[in-house]
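Extended Data, panel c. Modelled sequence:
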Amino acid sequence: MADILITHCNHLHFDRKQVRKMQPYPPLQAILAAAVLRHAGFEVALFDSTFQDPEAGFARALAQHRPKFVFLCEDNFNFLSKMCLTRNRQLAFFMAGLAREAGIPVAAAGSDASDHLVDYLRNGCGYVVMGEVEETIVDLARHVFTRGTSRPDRVAGIAWCDADSRIHVNRRRDRIAVLDSLPRPAWDLVAMEDYRAAWRTAHGYFSLNMVSSRGCPYRCNWCAKPIYGSTYQARSPRAIAEELAWLKQVYRPDRIWFADDIFALSNQWTLEFAGAVEALDASLPFKMQSRCDLMTRPTVAALARAGCAEVWMGAESGSQKVLDAMDKGLRATQIYSACENLRAHNIRVCLFLQFGYPGEGWEEIQETIRLVRKTQPDDIGVSVAYPLPGTRFYQLVESQLGPKQNWEDSDDLTMMFQGAYTSEFYRALRDALHLEVNAAGVPNRAVDEAWQRVEALEKTSAAANPTLLWTCC
């Protein structure tokens, strides 16, 4: 038995793209929530839906642990949670409904629950945690376990539904003052050998995830930030190096993925982190996310010393017109400089690209294609502009949105608004770019055929989808 059963809805079972990639990471936010709840005196169990049929598995977990409280805790450090996928939302409603039928109160936390709190509260969740999870879930758990002697309106950071089905939204909770005060995540709850086997079977190595910071201070107008807003807060470099050394010793990963929205923002932090890693012999090859302009700095040398092997940068577009429309705060020339700087330090260069933003036409798309061909990244991630609530981009296209406003899974890539081209065109463009990058400059008939398809669709889908190419203001 357990006081609290924690689970999440990011699973491989229904996501074809993630099954192909097979790069699963433990639910970091869930096991961090488990650690703080343990510290507060609660008995906690975890149902990790990653490798299981999530519906049948959750039913078994309820029967096994017989919890008094269920917490649907999405991973705020996982980009899949931030995509607010429809299938994951449906699974959350299923889990909440099953727990409610058993008379167990349910809370949900994550980007989708924050954006659609009314839907979650109408579909089995008694509470939605808004913002940072750790302090709020402890206070909420104490309320749940002392019902009748405490009031939900005094728990900062939640929305809740009363006995008359009225919805209440409490005041936001202040950010955690010192992130180093949080306990180490409850890694012992993770079926580590399942993850190790999945990685080694698919890739020949084992990777684990960490985070050194929360949030991002930049204001790209398409980026949804329902949890941290535009704030940024980092843990101390020494604490990160110590956790890295501990993971290296205890679980023996071959690599690390720093899942921060933006890693190593500060020059001083980066230098101190590299020094602490070297002092503790904590170095492991790691990959990270950052901005292109940050990767033009001399501190890239310190990242390389610390073990940085791969950097994913949000280039988005090779067109300055599109970058400016996005409020990216980036010069296209900085993308080229960042690629050169990383390569000079033997760090793999990976680019996130985004097509379909309002104002982008064939000329701007060709600028992005030229960017890829000139920089020759080691890998790319391709998406289309995806309007999510709370962004200026969403407000710009909201009147064009239809009944479908979220992707089903991470491979969906449907245009949700009236773009310059059809979804079929953008999917063909994605496939051609991936084929070309994977071919690494080697003549390839499949690549040629893929580009012929893109060019044909550019003509037919533009004619079939006439729309004004806006200039974003």
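The two ends are 56 Å apart (CA to CA). This feature is highlighted in the accompanying rendering.
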